Amino acid sequence: MPTRAPDRAPRDLNQSATTGGVGDSPTRPDGPLKVKGEFAYSSDLFMDDMVWGATLRSPHPRALIRSIDFAAALALPGVDAVLTHEDVPGCKLYGLDVRDQPVLAIGEVRHQGEPVALVAADHPETARRALKLIQVDYEVLEPVVDARRALFDPESPRVHPDGNLVRHQPVRVGADVDDPAVRARCAVVVSGEYEVGIQDQAFLGPESGLAVPAEDGGVDLYVATQWMHNDLLQVAPCLGLPEAKVRMTLSGVGGAFGGREDLSMQIHAAMLALRIGKPVKMVYNREESFFGHVHRHPASMKYTYGATAEGKLVFADVEIVLDGGGYTSATSNVVGNAASLGVGPYVVPNIRIDSYGALTNNPPCGAMRGFGAVQACFAYESMMDKLAAALGLDPVTIRQRNAVTQGDKLATGQVVEAPAPVAEMLETLKALPMPAPADTSDLRNLPGSTANTTHGEGVVRGVGYGIGVKNICFSEDFDDYSTARVRLELLGDTVGALVHTAAAEVGQGLITLEAQIARTELGVEQVVIHPADSSVGNAGSSSASRQSYMTGGAVKTACEAVRAAVFARLAEDHGRDYDDLSLVGGKIVSHAEGVIGTLEEVLAAGPIEETREYHHHRTDRMDPFTGQGNSHTQLAFAVHRAVVDVDIELGLIKVVALDLVQDVGKIMNRLSLEGQLHGGSAQGLGLAVMEEIQVRDGKVRNPSFTDYLIPTILDMPPMRMEILENADPRAPYGLRGAGEPPTLSSTPAIAAAIRDATGLDLRRVPIRPEDLTEVPTDA
Amino acid sequence: MRVTFTVNGRRAEADDVWEGESLLYVLRERVGLPGSKNACEQGECGSCTVYLDDVPVCSCLVAAGQVQDREVRTVEGLADGDELDPVQACFIKAGAVQCGFCTPGLLVQAHALIEHNPAPTDPEIREALAGNLCRCTGYEKILDAVREAAAIKAGVA
After folding, report:
1. Where is the composition biased (Basic and acidic residues) (chain A) (predicted)?
2. Which of A93, A512, A579, B28 is least surrounded by CB atoms within 10 angstroms?
3. What is the spatial order of strands in the sheet that A587-590 belongs to?
4. Are residues A317 and A444 located together in one domain of the fold?
C-alpha cells in the first residue's frame, strides 16, 4: 500500500446515466473535472515536502564521456542529490523490446538529448542551475546520420556493438519480380522514391510525474504512461526492487499517440526519491519533451510497380528503410508493420518487399499513431496515383480495380476474413458532395489567410484520394491480453458497478466505453471507474487502436462472469436452477417466469467481484525469409478524399476538405469515435503539410512549438464522414479499432491533392512551400 | 519576493517567489490552482490562458510580479459554484474534451470570445481560437461546443 498519497491523486470517477450503454454516446466520466481544471494530470501532483528532479542531457549526438564532475552542482544550496549511471541501483539498461538503453549514459552517448545525470533540488530553477554546473568532458565523434549508409556501408561506424541493423523483414510472393515473364505481363512500369520526415507525437501534457519513497523500501510512482505493466517490467529491475515494491498509479495523461510507450522520467524520479527519501516531481518543459520521447520513424522508400493496361497490379518491388535513431525501442515491430502492409490493401500477385530498421545517431524513434503503416501508406498510395497517371486512369478506378475484399490475401498471405468493402467505401466517398469554390471575398478562405498574400490569383484547387489499412492489436504472435476486475455492489440504496483495469485512459475515451459496457452487460446505471493502477492485472498498451477491443473485451468478459455469479447466487437462494435469465434495469428476469428477483436482494449478501483476462486469437510471426503468416489480429480500413487550394506562387496550402469513410465494425460511442477520426485525420494533415522534426548532423533544429508546427483550428477543414458498421465476428460487439486508420490515409490524400493542383511529382512529406514554388514542367 | 493578487475573486498571497517565476508557476505550484496548464511554457499553445484584468493572456508569459494587486481569473473560476458555465457544459456535451490538457486554455479563450462577440461566426471562432493548440480533437467538436455555448448564452438555444 502507498505510504501516503499526494494531493490531487487520481480518484474514482463516478457517473450515473439512465442510458449510456454500448452504442449510446454518454459523455466522459472525467469531463466535469477536466472542464473545471480539477483533473489531476501527472504534472499537477503535489506534496508538501517534494523536491524537483531534472535531467542533464547530452548536447552531442555521438560522443564518448571521459569524465563527469558534479561537485559544484552538489555544493549549490538547495540541491539534494546529483546522480549518474554509477548510482543506478540495479540493471543499468532498459528498453521497450530490447534492453539496450542506459538509464543514464555509460561512457558514451548515442543521440542528442540522451540522459547523462540527474539532479534533485528545492526549486526547478535551482535544479536548472545545478545542471549547468555539471562538467561533462565529452570526446565528440562523427555521428552516424544516414540510415542507408548505417545499414549497407560496411565502413560505417557501429552505433551499437552488434551493428546497425535492428531488423530486416523480407516479403516474397509469387514469381521473382525481375523475371522477364513477369515484366512481359506489364503494360506500364513506374518507379518512385519517397521520404517521410520525423513526426512528433506532440502530446500537450509533458512527460511528468511524482515518485514517493515508501516505508517498505519501495516506491509509489504516479505517472502518465500508455502501459503501466510494461513500465513496471523495465523500472523495477533498474531500481533493484521486486515488482511488488514498485506500485504504479496512472495519473492524468495529456495525450500520448505512441510517445508514452517508452519510459521517460519513471526510473529517474524513482532513483532520486529512493536516494534522498523525499517525494520527487519531474516535469519536462516542451524543449525537453522533444528529447524525452521517441518519434515517428523517418522513412526512405523505393517503389517500382508494374501493371496491365487495365490497371491490374502485376508486381511490386519495394525497399523501405526506417531510421530508428540511437536505440531500438519499437523499431523491430515498426519494420514488421511496414513490411506486412507495404503494398497496402491491394491484391498484388508478385511481391518483393525488403523492410529495414536501422540504428543511427539520429533522434530515437519508436511508436507513433499508425506505427510503420503510415510511412508505407504514403508511398503505396503515391504509387497508385503514379500508376493511374501512367495509364490514363482515374485515381479511384485504379484503386477499386486492385482493392482487397473479404477472402483476398494480403502480401503476407493472410486471408482477409472479416468484411473489407474497400471498393465500396471509395464509391461512397466519391459520392460525397464537393466543397464550393473558395469565396475569395474573405481572405480567411484562402491559402495565406489574413496574411493577405492572395485574393485568389495563383490559387489552384486539387483533389486527391488515399486508402489506409492498419493492423489492430499487437501482431506477430504477441499475446497482448487485457485484464478487468468488475465488482457489483450496493452503493447506498442503488446498485453500482466498479470497473478496475490497468488500461491507460490517454484521452481516447476508454473509460467512457468501459462504463458503457458495464451498463449494457449488467443493466445498472451507476458505474464507478477506479483509477488505473498496477494492483490489477496487465491491460496491455493503449496503442495499436487496441483498447476498445482488448480492455473492452476484458470488461465485457468480467461483466459476464459477474452476471453468471449473480444468477448462481439467486439460484442457490431459490434452491433451483434457471437457464433463461437476463439482467435488465437492476432486475433479474426469467424469460419464462418474468421478474424473479432484484440485484439489491442478491447483493444484500455482499458484493460480487470477478476478474477476467481477455486474449485475442493467436497470430503468427512473419516468416523471416518470405514474410508469410497470419500475423495480424484485425484489419481496419479508412479512405480519405482531400481537397486543397494551393497558392502556386508562394507555395502556401489550404486544405479545404478532408472527407472520410471508415469501417469501424460497430459504433460503440459515436461522439468519442468521431473525435478519434477527426483527431487522427488532423495528425495526418500535420504530417502532409507541416510537421517535421528537422535534424542536421544528428541535432534537432526545431524543438519547440514555435518551430515544430502542429495544425491549429485554422488549418483543419470541416470534415464530412461516413462511418460504416461491417462487424468483425471475432471482435467484442463486432468492433474494429478506429484511432489509427485515418492517420494513415489523410496524409497521402492531401499529398495527392497537392500534386493534382500543382502537377508536381512530390515525393516527400511534409510538403514545404519550397517544394511547390517551381513552375511545374507540365503545367 | 511576496506577490499579492486576486484570483477567482479571492485574495492570494505567494511568498518566496523567485523573480523569474511566471504567473503560471505561481498559480500551479504556489496557490494551489493547477488547472491552467503547462504544455509549452513559451506562449505558443494557449493551454495556460487566464484572464488578467478581463484580458485573456498566456500566464506562462506573465512574470509573477506583474500581477501584484491585479485580478486573475482561471479555469477554476469559470463555474458558478457547482453550476458550470455554458462553455464548460458545452465542451463536455459536444465531445470537445479528450485528453483535456488544452481544455482550460480553450475554455477561457472561448469564454472571452463570447463575452466580446455574443454571436461569433465560424471564421471568427477559428480566428479567436487560433492560438490554442489541441492535439486530440481535430477541433471540429470544439467548434460545435463554442457555437452551442454562444447560442445558450444568447438565449437562443
Report:
1. 1-11
2. A579
3. A581-584, A587-590, A594-598
4. yes
Q: Amino acid identity, residue A672?
A: S
Same domain, A691 and A551: no
Note whether B136 contacts A679, CB cutoff 8 Å: yes
> Are A446 and A491 in the same domain?
no
Residue where a domain stops, chosen among A596, A614, A632: A614
User: What does the alpha-carbon distance between residue B12 and residue B14 come to, in Å, rounded to a whole number?
Assistant: 7
In terms of C-beta density within 10 A (0-12 exposed, 13-18 middle, 19 or more buried), how is residue A23 classed?
middle
Three-state secondary structure call for residue A604: coil
What is the average per-residue pLDDT within A319-331? 98
- pLDDT tens digit sequence for B137-150: 999 999 999 999 99
pLDDT of B156 over the 80 cut: no
A382 and A276 in one domain?
A: no
Instruction: Please name the member of B39, B133, B136 whose beta carbon is closest to the beta carbon of A507.
Output: B136
Query: How would you classify the pairing of strands A526-529 and A494-500?
Result: parallel
Which one of A41, A49, A204 would you mutate to disrupt binding with B, by most B Cβ within 10 Å of its Cβ?
A: A204
A320-329, A478-487, A584-593, B27-36: which has the minimum mean pLDDT? A584-593
Q: Return the pLDDT at B157.
A: 66
- Sketch the domain layout of chain B as residue ranges: 3-77, 86-153
A464 and A524 belong to one structural domain: no
In the predicted model, what is the mean pLDDT of residues A562-590?
Answer: 93
- Number of structural domains found in chain A: 3
Contact A254 B126 (CB under 8 A): no
Pick the CATH number of B86-153 from 3.10.450.330, 3.40.50.880, 3.40.50.300, 1.10.150.120: 1.10.150.120
Q: Give the one of A37, A678, A683 whose C-beta lies nearest to B74's C-beta.
A: A37
Asked if residue A279 is part of any domain, the answer here is yes
Question: Mean pLDDT, chain B, as a whole number?
Answer: 97
CATH (domain of A587) = 3.30.365.10
Residues A285 and A300 in one domain: no
For residue A2, pLDDT beyond 80: no
Predicted confidence (pLDDT) per residue in A609-649, tens digit: 999 999 999 999 999 999 999 999 999 999 999 999 999 99
Angle at B133 between CA B128 and CA B137, to 5 degrees: 100
In chain B, residues with a C-beta closer than 8 Å to the C-beta of A706 are 42, 44
Task: Say whether both A312 and A388 belong to one domain.
Answer: yes
Q: Is residue A552 part of a domain?
A: yes
The C-alpha of B95 sits at a distance from chain A's nearest C-alpha, in angstroms, of 6
Instruction: Say how far apart CA A137 and CA A15 lie, in whole Å.
Output: 56
Looking at residue A3, what is its pLDDT? 59
- Reported as a pLDDT band with limits 50, 70 and 90, residue A535 is very high
Average pLDDT over residues A209-238: 98
How far is Cα B152 from Cα B157, in angstroms, rounded to an integer? Answer: 5
Same domain, yes or no, for A363 and A456?
Answer: yes
Q: How many CB atoms lie within 10 A of CB A629?
A: 19
Supply A719's cell numbers.
470534415
Q: Is B16 exposed, middle or buried (0-12, 13-18, 19+ CB in 10 A)?
A: exposed
Distance from the Cα of B33 to chain A's closest Cα (Å) equals 8
Last residue in a domain, options A595, A614, A633: A614
- Please list, residue by residue across A675-706, b when 16 or more beta carbons sit within 10 angstroms of its beta carbon and e when fewer do: bbbbbbbbbbbbbbbbbbbebeebbbeebbbe
Domain of residue A609: give its range: 482-614
Partner B contacted by A508 (CB < 8 A): yes
Give the integer Cα–Cα distance in Å for A287 and A702: 9
C-alpha cell recorded at residue A660: 472520410
Q: What is the sign of the dihedral through the CA atoms of A398, A400, A406 and A407? A: negative
Q: What is the CATH number for A227?
A: 3.90.1170.50
| B81 or A502: which leads in pLDDT | A502
Please indicate, yes or no, if residue A364 is contained in any of the structural domains.
Answer: yes
